[in-house]
Amino acid sequence: MIEINNFAKEKEFLICIDSDGSAIDTMTEKHQKAFGPEAVKVWGLESVKDIFLKKWDKVNLYSNTRGINRFKGLVKTFNALKVEGHNLPEITKIQQWVETSSELSNPALKREIEKSKNKEELKLALQWSQQVNQKISGLEKDIKKVFKGVKESLIKISPKADIAVVSSANQEALLDEWESYNLQEHVKIILGQEAGSKADNIKDLKQKGYKTKNILMIGDAPGDLRAAETNDVSFYPIIPTEEEQSWSVFLEQTAAQFFAGNYREEYEDKLIKKFKFILK
């Protein structure tokens, strides 16, 4: 798979697609079997396990911060529980890094650890993130995890559009999943957290020569919408709990509307309003 520096525009349209929770039904499983439980292990939160996991799911799956970067989600969950009066371990150094770093990934965290004097908090964050990746790689793969309509949509749009996976997930896991589910052949580039933020990746792709009106971002989280808005490109929401219906509408209606140039003016606003209502 090519890197963004070597990416070259081939078609007039560009469609960016988020992975977890949008194309592949692994988001809930990853959070409930990897992210949350591994945090409990690393920070020794067994005494507040149920409370922590419930808050973790609320922050990362069932609110307007759905799809947030893993490190931001960690800080937000800890802080929310502290505000509620729960006694949790200190993560000040992690929060400082999250708030100041231009890249939130394992490689960036390793670089921060190398130059820091007080490393213990940051080492725990890296340990957690690495354990999450290991846990995710061991989760059973099942072709049914691909939402119905995704592959059909990729086949339909790939002759007209360059397709990019733009995700905040771990790059290695993304490559493995898209290859395992036989989706990679329809995609031109796959960009994970190591490539930068979604907004930056869309910006870099946009600069390859696409007209703004010819770019669409497909995603299931507010962060996907913000990435699209930052770059003034169109957004198509995959509605949480209505994923297969969303893909059906895209396949049967939205793709044609987008290529015809009338999606943004006539349909986008209504769908975004519904999307925001679901995740308010």
TrEMBL record:
The keyword Hydrolase applies. It comes from the Bacteria. GO terms for biological process: DNA repair. The keyword Hydrolase applies. This is Phosphoglycolate phosphatase-like HAD superfamily hydrolase. GO terms for molecular function: phosphoglycolate phosphatase activity. Transmembrane segments: none annotated. It comes from Halanaerobium congolense. Keywords: Hydrolase.
